[in-house]
Q: What sequence folds into this?
């Protein structure tokens, strides 16, 4: 604890986390509203090493307490996790707080898990906000169970706080820039097939777009991996690019849930182990691209992915609920199973659906002379077309269903009317639309899918 | 095989509907829902909010009643519905965000003003479904506790994601509003201090007089209790004077303090003005506040130096004071009673009273604009922004089917105000830290930093927002009628010249009129900021007359024996001038060459003959086109990168009134594509064109009516287009005519019906012009051949009169070049179309329900067409001979092969792409040639027209 501030009572526990590189996160805190003493800070995590800005423990405590101000009025439903986001210019910090209720010493308390960053990192942090919040929300779900059982929540929270520190540190050095020079991508090749096989490129981009722009690129050569990462990022919005990461030249980053595109380096044995759980927890299905062997695999579409994800989450939480001892925190890598749910480990499958949109784009873009801005312009036209098609599709469904009040039953008409009869084209446009209107896949395909899955599960249980 | 036990199994309660809960099962409150609401209805995420749409709430933490809502924008109770504003105010104001010391700091004799930075918080009430961006700020009030009044402005929405994704834009706009309020508040606070000091001075003088009287009345060595009390009172007043003077000094030093908020947006002019006022007051009261000499000057104050006064020249001081007295408002100083300083039962000032009125009004206006700009569904806001960002990267083709980037109404509201709330010019702004992009490459902020229009700069001095708005509105109101009038006048003028044109217009005349246009080039700053837009309407308006009378050199191609008589007439009429031009070209070509040569790609193997010239002299323009006609085998292609020319063409306005001038006439050799197809390129805006089509009821354009066509108008037209497609089975043929450059005449007796049809079909006119100049919505007089070149879509009145018969004559005369859609008989006469490219947007069996959806569909289809045309235009190897031995036929064959085999297009579909490509080429080369608008080539087809009926 730093000097100059009155000692906290009881003393605030503090963990120093060793992070490679410069971590933009100043501290993370867990605070709760004590029904007698008011807001109290229970634990502080700080990255070890040099930081852009120094906050004393007293200041951290002050800020952490601050996040609970006004929460005496909280009237959220049980189990809800609310997010508060502060930009305190007076203190020069931004604070992200997740407010939730939990049981401490038999009392129901309002708690806050917060991360604190310098205000100067606002632009850096904002695109990553959703990723951090979603990951923290899930660890809070686990933490609430732990609190309910009377166990120490800190050990559970640490499971995600540390990776988030690592994520932010890695993004600080290796995030994809907002503006990508087409010269650093495959699209600058003189001819199609110069850098990679034509069919591979087509398949990679097509699948990448079908999985909402979410891809992992693995390989042994970092330059090759990064070239494909940048190429795929050309098809993302600038904000999404800021949520993408290049691979590190010397050693590989760990897979991080929630990033759009990430480059990962294989180890010396030529393999890369993907954590099943983290990949499944990604908000969108993922395309797996191996640049060494030119393979492209993809996860099932959004509605199936979301369904699998939720079932896995429920299973994981259920397993935690049944844990008898505080020491038995199930590690993240363990595949959670129970009698009702066995995850399908074969989540990456071949790209089944061919498209015409990407195919013609790839064929045509290489006809334009490289080195000029012709290809960038053509790419912009292609992206504009996709965005507009997605919006048209959304509007079509909106009209048909009276904004979701009626079920959507005219997919065939939609395909004909909007010229999306080729399955791959439909998948791409639907993926764009999904990003604009979350839950669209489930709305369009969900019900029959759930029904069939339920029937299958029931049949399998006999 | 499934037996009966299996069937029974389906009736078993599974985990989705268990009747006997497992004691070990995870309670739902600790789990995640398997089927969240978003799955069953992605539109219902925000449905449980008690308010209908987003709004802005201004709340105050009142020291008397606690948090209370003050104002909502929009100020309509329906917006908030049953949402409890009191409770929500309590929630958002209960964040103790400042935690800075306010009041008397230890060791300081005087109270300190606390200059706290604004705080921004996003929070929500998940139960109520309400989320808010909350901007906390502090205003100063002399009568408030600690002199501060905490306020907050909140943007309340049911969509949390919308707030977070647009956090930086919200932050920027609210910072702007906050700075405006604070600037007004500092001014008001200084005035309040001024009044207070005057009261204190007056009180001091009264007390001093009383104390003197008592001292004189009492014994010399003794003071009565009353006298002591008076002396204490006097001392208190003196202390209070020093304190208030110190407050004045503090508020004057506001700007000197280091800003800790990197995201604050300050207007330097507001800051400086306020500072000057404060300093003026400070100077004055540093002297006036000398309590000991107030009465000596008869209540006017005097130059006696106080203890902390700065020494200055006496004369100067006198002058200052005189000025101060002269300017002093009619305020009568009041006696301040003892112990009245801490009076908490007073009525607190309202927000209006706390701020200078101008600033308050400006802030409210700014917030209203903010509310408007963030209104609507996130998905549409997001896409619109992405759309705009992407369109900015493809300016070379935007003119074909896209509305103008800077002038769209909806974009306007999405654009940040370029001025501070009280309309100081943008260059006064200081972005301590320009906001980075959140949703996309945000052009809005960049736009806002563009220099304002000169007219806006002129209005800067007025400082009144109303006046500026009034100005803008008056432009808006007057412009359509004015323009119509001008158009009519100019048309009348040119009508006269048409008769002379029939007998042959001299080239000198043409040059003269050409020169008159050239002498007043269009405003290069047409990429407008919202407010500047109103002003450019003026420019547009004023320039429209010139544009309408623009004359140009015609050029054409002799169609050979097959060329119709009328065409030959026109061609022969123009022959003379062209020959002259040709001579001039041969003379001047060498001189021009070095300057006009467009930087080309050296890797390109195009022959020197095919180089493109940047014509700086207008005379040079036609010859280039001319040469292309004389040597049709020469392929003029674009072989330079589009971006290289962007700085030049950045502000182009396709076919806008201010850009109607002769074109280069550079064309792709489409004539070679088929034997039956030939083409003539006639200069746009030639005298004869104008005069012939003059009608008394002529409208400028079907959509914009002389003003910029907005996205909203186009969306509206989408409904008409959908109706047209549903109603007419031959809609595809009509669309093909428009897209392939064949003029479509909509004939009908009912003006409303014709206008509606034209408005709907105008969506499909490539390069309609910024204000829809290529479309004539309603014409009640015969048209000429050159009209057909100028207008690609004409609404023609059917009348049963001599005029009507001449109109019918003109229709039959030019039937070879036009397609006729008879709105009354519901027929279409045009060449047959057998392509597939348009099948999807002209299917009368479409299930698309709404016009807006159909518009989106059309938009994406046209976007694809534009992309293909771009590809065709800029694929160099298609248009260039690979070797010197390669003849034009080979090149032509390659182009044909590309269209047919690569793009899979048939004959008619190819014509669409060729026409679009031709327009792109002209548009692209236009800035290089120095002319401002490219006239589309006039194409005609010898294919027999077919009559389609319902």
A:
């Amino acid at each position: 604890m730093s000097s100059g501030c009155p000692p906290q009572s009881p003393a605030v526990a503090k963990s120093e986390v060793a992070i490679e590189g410069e971590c933009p996160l100043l501290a993370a805190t867990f605070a709760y509203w004590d029904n007698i003493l008011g807001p109290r800070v229970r634990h502080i995590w700080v990255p070890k090493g040099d930081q852009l800005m120094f906050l004393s423990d007293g200041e951290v405590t002050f800020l952490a307490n601050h996040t609970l101000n006004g929460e005496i009025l909280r009237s959220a439903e049980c189990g809800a996790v609310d997010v508060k986001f502060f930009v305190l210019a007076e203190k020069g910090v931004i604070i992200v707080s997740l407010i939730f209720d939990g049981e401490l010493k038999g009392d129901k308390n309002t708690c806050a898990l917060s991360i604190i960053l310098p205000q100067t990192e606002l632009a850096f942090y904002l695109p990553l906000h959703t990723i951090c919040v979603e990951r923290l929300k899930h660890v809070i779900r686990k933490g609430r169970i732990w609190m309910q059982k009377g166990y120490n929540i800190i050990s559970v929270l640490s499971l995600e706080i540390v990776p988030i520190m690592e994520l932010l540190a890695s993004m600080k050095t290796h995030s994809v820039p907002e503006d990508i020079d087409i010269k650093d991508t495959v699209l600058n090749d003189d001819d199609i097939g110069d850098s990679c096989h034509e069919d591979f490129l087509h398949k990679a981009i097509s699948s990448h777009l079908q999985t909402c722009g979410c891809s992992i690129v693995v390989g042994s050569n970092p330059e090759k991996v990064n070239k494909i990462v940048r190429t795929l990022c050309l098809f993302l919005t600038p904000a999404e690019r800021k949520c993408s990461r290049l691979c590190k030249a010397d050693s590989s980053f760990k897979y991080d849930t929630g990033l759009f595109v990430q480059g990962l380096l294989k180890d010396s044995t030529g393999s890369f182990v993907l954590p099943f759980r983290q990949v499944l927890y990604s908000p969108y299905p993922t395309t797996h691209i191996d640049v060494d062997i030119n393979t492209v695999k993809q996860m099932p579409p959004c509605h199936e992915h979301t369904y699998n994800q939720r079932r896995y989450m429920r299973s994981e939480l259920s397993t935690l609920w049944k844990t008898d001892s505080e020491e038995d925190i199930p590690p993240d890598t363990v595949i959670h199973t129970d009698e009702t749910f066995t995850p399908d480990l074969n989540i990456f499958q071949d790209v089944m659906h061919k498209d015409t949109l990407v195919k013609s784009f790839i064929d045509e873009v290489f006809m334009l002379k490289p080195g000029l801005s012709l290809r960038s312009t053509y790419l912009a036209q292609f992206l504009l077309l996709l965005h507009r098609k997605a919006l048209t599709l959304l509007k079509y469904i909106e009209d048909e269903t009276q904004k979701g009040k009626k079920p959507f039953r005219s997919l065939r008409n939609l395909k004909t009317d909007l010229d999306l009869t080729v399955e791959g084209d439909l998948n791409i446009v639907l993926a764009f639309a999904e990003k604009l209107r979350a839950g669209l896949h489930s709305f369009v395909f969900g019900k029959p899918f759930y029904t069939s899955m339920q029937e299958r599960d029931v049949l399998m249980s006999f | 095989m499934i037996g009966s036990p299996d069937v029974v199994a389906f009736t078993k309660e599974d985990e989705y509907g268990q009747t006997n809960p497992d004691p070990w099962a995870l309670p739902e409150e600790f789990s995640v829902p398997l089927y969240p609401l978003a799955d069953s209805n992605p539109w219902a995420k925000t449905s449980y909010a008690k308010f209908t749409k987003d709004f802005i709430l201004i709340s105050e933490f009142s020291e008397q009643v606690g948090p209370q809502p003050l104002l909502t924008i929009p100020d309509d109770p329906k917006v908030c519905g049953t949402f409890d504003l009191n409770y929500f105010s309590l929630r958002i104001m209960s964040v103790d965000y400042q935690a800075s010391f306010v009041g008397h700091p230890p060791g300081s004799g005087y109270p300190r003003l606390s200059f706290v930075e604004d705080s921004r918080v996003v929070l929500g009430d998940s139960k109520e479904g309400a989320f808010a961006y909350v901007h906390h700020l502090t205003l100063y009030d002399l009568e408030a506790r600690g002199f501060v009044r905490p306020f907050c402005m909140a943007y309340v929405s049911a969509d949390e994601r919308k707030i977070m994704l647009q956090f930086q834009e919200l932050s920027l706009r609210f910072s702007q509003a906050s700075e405006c309020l604070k600037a007004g508040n500092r001014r008001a606070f200084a005035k309040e201090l001024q009044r207070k000091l005057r009261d204190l001075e007056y009180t001091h003088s009264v007390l001093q007089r009383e104390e003197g009287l008592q001292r004189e009345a009492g014994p010399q060595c003794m003071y009565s209790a009353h006298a002591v009390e008076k002396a204490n009172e006097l001392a208190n007043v003196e202390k209070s004077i020093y304190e208030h003077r110190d407050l004045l000094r503090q508020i004057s030093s506001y700007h000197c303090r280091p800003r800790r908020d990197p995201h604050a947006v300050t207007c330097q002019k507001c800051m400086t003005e306020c500072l000057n006022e404060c300093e003026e007051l400070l100077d004055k009261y540093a002297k006036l506040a000398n309590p000991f000499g107030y009465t000596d000057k008869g209540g006017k104050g005097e130059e006696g130096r106080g203890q902390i006064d700065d020494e200055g020249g006496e004369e100067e001081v006198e002058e200052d004071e005189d000025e101060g007295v002269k300017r002093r408002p009619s305020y009568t100083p009041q006696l301040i009673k003892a112990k009245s300083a801490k009076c908490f039962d007073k009525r607190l000032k309202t927000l209006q009273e706390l701020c200078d009125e101008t600033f308050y009004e400006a802030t409210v206006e700014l917030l209203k604009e903010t509310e408007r700009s963030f209104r609507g569904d996130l998905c549409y806001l997001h896409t619109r922004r992405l759309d705009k960002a992407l369109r900015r990267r493809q300016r070379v083709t935007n003119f074909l089917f896209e509305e103008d980037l800077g002038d769209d109404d909806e974009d306007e509201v999405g654009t940040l105000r370029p001025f501070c709330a009280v309309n100081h010019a943008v260059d006064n702004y200081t972005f301590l830290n320009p906001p980075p992009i959140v949703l996309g490459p945000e052009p809005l902020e960049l736009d806002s930093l563009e220099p304002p229009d000169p007219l806006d700069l002129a209005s800067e001095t007025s400082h009144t927002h109303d006046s500026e708005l009034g100005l803008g509105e008056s432009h808006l109101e007057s412009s359509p009628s004015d323009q119509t009038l001008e158009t009519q006048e100019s048309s009348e003028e040119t009508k006269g010249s048409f008769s002379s044109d029939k007998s042959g217009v001299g080239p000198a005349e043409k040059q003269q009129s050409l020169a008159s246009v050239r002498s007043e080039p269009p405003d290069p700053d047409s990429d407008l900021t919202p407010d500047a837009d109103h002003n450019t309407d003026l420019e547009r308006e004023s320039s429209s007359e010139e544009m309408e009378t623009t004359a140009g050199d015609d050029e054409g191609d002799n169609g050979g024996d097959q060329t119709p008589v009328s065409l030959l007439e026109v061609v022969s009429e123009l022959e003379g001038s062209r020959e002259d031009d040709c001579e001039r070209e041969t003379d001047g070509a060498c001189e021009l060459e070095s300057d006009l040569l467009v930087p080309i790609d050296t890797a390109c193997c195009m022959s020197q003959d095919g180089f493109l010239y940047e014509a700086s002299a207008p005379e040079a323009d036609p010859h280039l086109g001319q040469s292309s006609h004389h040597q049709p085998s020469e392929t003029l292609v674009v072989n330079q990168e589009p971006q290289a020319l962007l700085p030049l063409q950045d502000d182009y306005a396709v076919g806008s009134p201010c850009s109607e001038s002769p074109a280069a006439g550079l064309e792709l050799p489409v004539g070679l594509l088929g034997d039956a197809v030939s083409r003539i390129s006639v200069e746009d805006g030639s005298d004869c064109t104008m005069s012939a089509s003059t009608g008394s009821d002529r409208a400028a354009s079907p959509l914009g009516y002389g003003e910029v066509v907005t996205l909203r108008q186009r969306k509206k037209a989408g409904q008409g287009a959908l109706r047209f497609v549903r109603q007419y089975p031959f809609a595809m043929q009509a669309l093909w005519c428009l897209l392939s450059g064949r003029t479509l005449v909509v004939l009908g007796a009912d003006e409303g019906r014709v206008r509606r049809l034209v408005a709907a079909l105008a969506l499909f006119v490539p390069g309609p012009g910024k204000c829809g100049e290529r479309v004539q919505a309603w014409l009640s007089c015969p048209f000429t051949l050159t009209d057909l070149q100028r207008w690609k879509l004409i609404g023609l009145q059917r009348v049963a009169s001599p005029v009507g018969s001449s109109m019918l004559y003109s229709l039959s005369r030019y039937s070879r070049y036009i397609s006729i859609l008879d709105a009354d008989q519901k027929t279409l006469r045009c060449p047959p179309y057998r392509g597939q490219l348009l099948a999807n947007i002209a299917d009368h069996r479409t299930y698309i329900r709404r016009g807006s959806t159909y518009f989106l569909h059309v938009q994406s289809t046209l976007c694809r067409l534009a992309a293909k045309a771009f590809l065709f235009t800029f694929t160099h190897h298609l248009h260039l001979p690979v070797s010197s031995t390669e003849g034009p036929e080979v090149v032509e064959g390659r182009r044909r092969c590309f269209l047919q085999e690569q793009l899979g297009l048939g004959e008619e579909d190819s014509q669409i792409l060729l026409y679009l490509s031709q327009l792109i080429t002209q548009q692209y080369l236009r800035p290089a040639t120095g002319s401002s608008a490219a006239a589309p080539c006039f194409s005609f087809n010898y294919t027999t027209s077919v009559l389609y009926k319902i």
Chain B touches chain A through 111 residues (CB under 8 Å).
